Amino acid sequence: MKLFESSHDFHYPWDQVTAANWQKYPNELSSHVVSVDILNRYIDPATNVLRTERLIGCKQPIPKWLSMLVGGQEYSYVREISEIDLSTKTLVMKSTNLTMNHLLQVNETVTYRPDHELPNSRTHFTQKAEITAFASFSRVCDKIEEWSVERFGQNANTGKQAFESVLKTLTAKWEESGVFVVDIGTSLLNDLNHVTDKTSTVLAEVSKLGNVFKDKE
Amino acid sequence: MGNIMSTSFAPECTEKKTKYDDCFNKWYTEKFLQGKSMENECVQLWDDYITCVNSALASHQIKPILDKARQDQPFTSEEIDSAIAPKK
């Protein structure tokens, strides 16, 4: 198992960050994400915590050699659970892949909380991904895990920059209208290309693992 | 490509999903975050949407792998809480 960890400060209020978070998938540029469905959603009457279960669908551009390993499924799916606690101002999301998990299991945890010093204008983001590869040879597993961690790091960097841009656009709209916007325009969707949680990206790009196997054979 | 933002994994559910999402996002930003409402105000739209989704989960054979993940990695509220436990 390999661990990827990262953190970042967004210079936007926590509530705006959480509102933007619902509206980021899918979009034209992150074409590997093809669907998002809400499977369960409820508010715990005792705690007022909003809990949501989502199913995120990704295209799987699998080469033939890998298709034999994973059963030739056209789509891969990720299950995500999120909890939003207004009283403590925390958003936590946990996700795991439903498909290909005999080859690669990615367990991701993302948190958003107001910054300690500037709670009304800054949001602290953390991301942790546990990546475990299951292949026959340990060296191949190592390679897959190393590659996945590397991809996670690359995506996370662009993701943070892109999310900053999304928040900037949203904030301008909110200031103009006086309320949070419900409808996000196409240009904003493009900005949403690289988002901060990357489990689905890693899965979609698992096809590149072909090179790893070729190296070893 | 039409409304790419609100696509369901099951095409027949996408329109229902879009309607529900619109309702939810409005409620979330204008009511929930403001502390004005802790009631789900999109019940009818949700019922239409989730009925469609549940049927599609079964027919697309996603239900079994979903249920397995729910069992293997339930991501309970306790697990969620431990992710934000005070450090040090």
From TrEMBL, chain A:
GO terms for cellular component: mitochondrial intermembrane space. It holds the Pfam family PRELI. Residues 1-175 form the PRELI/MSF1 domain. InterPro entries: PRELI/MSF1_dom (IPR006797), Slowmo/Ups (IPR037365). It comes from the Eukaryota. This is PRELI/MSF1 domain-containing protein. It comes from Candida tenuis (strain ATCC 10573 / BCRC 21748 / CBS 615 / JCM 9827 / NBRC 10315 / NRRL Y-1498 / VKM Y-70) (Yeast).
UniProtKB/TrEMBL annotation, chain B:
Belongs to the TRIAP1/MDM35 family. The keyword Disulfide bond applies. Keywords: Disulfide bond. InterPro entries: MDM35_apoptosis. This is Mitochondrial distribution and morphology. GO terms for molecular function: phosphatidic acid transfer activity. GO terms for cellular component: cytosol; mitochondrial intermembrane space; nucleus. Pfam families: UPF0203. GO terms for biological process: phospholipid translocation.
